[in-house]
Fold these 2 entries.
Entry 1:
Amino acid sequence: MKRILLSVLGVAAVTVSISAASAQQYVATLRGEVDLAEETMPPPIPAQTNDDLRKARNYPEQPPLIPHKIEGYQIDKNANRCLTCHARSAVEDSQAPMISVTHFMNRDNQVLASVSPRRYFCTQCHVPQHEAKPLVENAFVDVDNVLEYLKENEGGSD
Amino acid sequence: MFSRLWNWIKGLWRTIARPSIHYSLGFLCLSGFFMGIIFWGGFNTALELTNTEKFCTGCHEMRDNVFEELKSTIHYTNRSGVRATCPDCHVPHEWTPKIARKMQASKEVWGKIFGTINTREKFLEKRLELAQHEWARLEANDSLECRNCHSEEYMDFTRQSKRAAETHERFLVTGEKTCIDCHKGIAHQLPDLGQAGMMKPQPTEAQIVAYLDSLEELGAN
């Protein structure tokens, strides 16, 4: 009896592990097909784009992308490396674009004298770019093209 | 007591002032020469020993605060493995300024003994003052310690990003600014600098007070 029970358990264990293995083959993860217990070799980090050329925004309220390297920039309670060039008082020297007036607004749209705390941590919204192949496909279409298409095909929309 | 000491000094002086009886002039000269080598070599070895990263990070004040921050920066680790150690930036390389800085460092020994920055909190509180000392030193010597490695003459601006090249041409080549004016906080974290930017000349406290007073007067009228 004991023997039968053991063999049944063994078969069950093998089945579970096989199905787990086959399931693993089908789940596509960014991590690749590597056991959980094993460490993967991460791909090398591509260099940050540093051409200083402004990128077009994909939609009007998109935070502008950072067209330069920001490696090692300190942004904390004490100092903000970005503001040493992009602050209102610094742009004359740096000739960098000044942070927009929305950064001075509190949530009631009142303009404050200095940068609003809720807009202080630049990299929450603004990101640098890498010369890297996208990991997942993207079917995004610019809204201008969408509007054009709608105008032609449906006689406009309201 | 004093007369005995005085007599001993007088005796010593008589011995020193008298020509040697047993040793030849050549022997004395040569031994002086070799003793000089040993003394100078020993002095210089001891001096260089205090000029190493190992010595600087021997105290927890440096090891746990500024050295820890250095580790993630390009001056500690980078693609080519050429790196700067503490004295490369913080101690002048020329002999006379180096000795002057070493004498100033006695203040740091004082600070170590009396625990001026022996906790993280004390260090953070004093960090702005300490940083300002270093900035003032580098501003005064035209960022000499930066320029020991980063020579403006051999800098290839075409290899820099457009932004960096333009800024260097505008401020560095013209001598309008020196390295530290813009490159603060590259090897260690910045202290709280307040709202005002780092680049503008700051008004004095008196000017600010006068401005505020004039505003108040306007409000009163």
Entry 2:
Amino acid sequence: MKRSDEFKVARMLDELPEQHAGASMDQKFARLKSRLSSAPEVQAKHRSKRIGYSIAASILMFGIGFLLANYLHSDRIEHLQSAYADMRSLLIQSLPADQGTNGKLRAFDHLINSEHIGYNADELIQIYEGTEDENLKLAALNLLDGFMDEQDVMSFLEERLEEEESPLLLIPMINLITEAKTRKGMDALKRLEDQDAVHPAVKDHLKAIEL
Amino acid sequence: MKRILFMLLICMGYQVSAQRQKEITDFVQKWRIENVSMRSISISGLPGTIEITGNKTQTIDIEVVGEEVYLLQGGATGLGFMLSKDKNEHYRIQGMGNQTMDVTYQISLPDDAELSIDFGGQNNNSAPWKIQGMKGEIRLLRMKGDIEVEGAIGPVSVVNYNGDLKLNYERFSQIGPHSISSLGDISIHFDPRDELRVELNAHAEIKLEIGDEFEDPDVGPRLTKGRYEFSLNQGSNPLKLQAYKGRLILNTKIAWEE
């Protein structure tokens, strides 16, 4: 009802108090009059309450929405991380498989270039040991220089020095160990230099680095 | 009497040898197979020089020439190798020798077949390999000896424990990475229109000659140990190159006319 109409009705009721239409109607009129004659302060108080309820409801809805979105987002993140882990595992397992060099190197490049999938030293060593393809071994070996502070990597290189025959692999290994300059590594290089069966190119390389 | 018998024996031996030589020559002519559907071929254990030529006629043609051909024996061919194929059109030439002999295997193959030559392990054959006009994937592995590849598209993969490599690309395939690891002088020529990225690992001091068309090498004529990257025509498909000693030449040849 419009405000102007409310005042009109209230004045009419004041002006016609004798008009009784029964007790229930009287009560109704009394309530209506009471309501219509409510002071603006009361109305303002009701308005404040309404605003307060609206704000509370908004905050509540926002909170529910935020929690729901957060849950869904973290679920998605976990799902993505799980997918990346699966992809990494798949790539590493498929690398040594019976594929051509081209296929293996393509998978290897995808592994190392993807910022989400990632790789670590153990996986590089796993790739190296799981394949006969020298191109792939070299690709893995060339990345190990980022992990030379890890003891496992040093141990791996020192063991491989004694077993590896290919000069193409031995020379990069020698360079990695020389740069690391650990005592155990340098001793391993000296032992390699003393072996007779070492490839001439490896011997020349060891002489050139002057152990 | 004894002398006469002895002379007769020598004459007989000569005749047998000459007859054997003739038989081999005749036998060689038989090794031509036409209308083949070759997906790939792998070659191993051939003692001597290998010359491979790609052809557009879908033919396998094998001739063996040289001073020591008559010494070859074994294999169904009598020339020291077997030729076989499986149901997936993968062919195989399996040789019987690991040494260097004065023979040359002149092999003509369909130029779109994948070619793999694997002389790993204890193979001591150091005679040169010359491969010309093969347009498919090429994979080469050997312990020692020089390799020359002309007109390649690839992808090309070379592992050579000791020997020089000359590689002229007709076009640099974008299918996947190329990979060269050779302990010797390396000379690679590209078409000026090729797009590629060179990822070079120098494991010792290397003399470098590089064409001006390569972008941002920022390197001098002598490379120290380390990793270098530069591209040609801003390409992204990698050529993974491992250089161990000697000279490295990367250049573009004069554009060939179509």
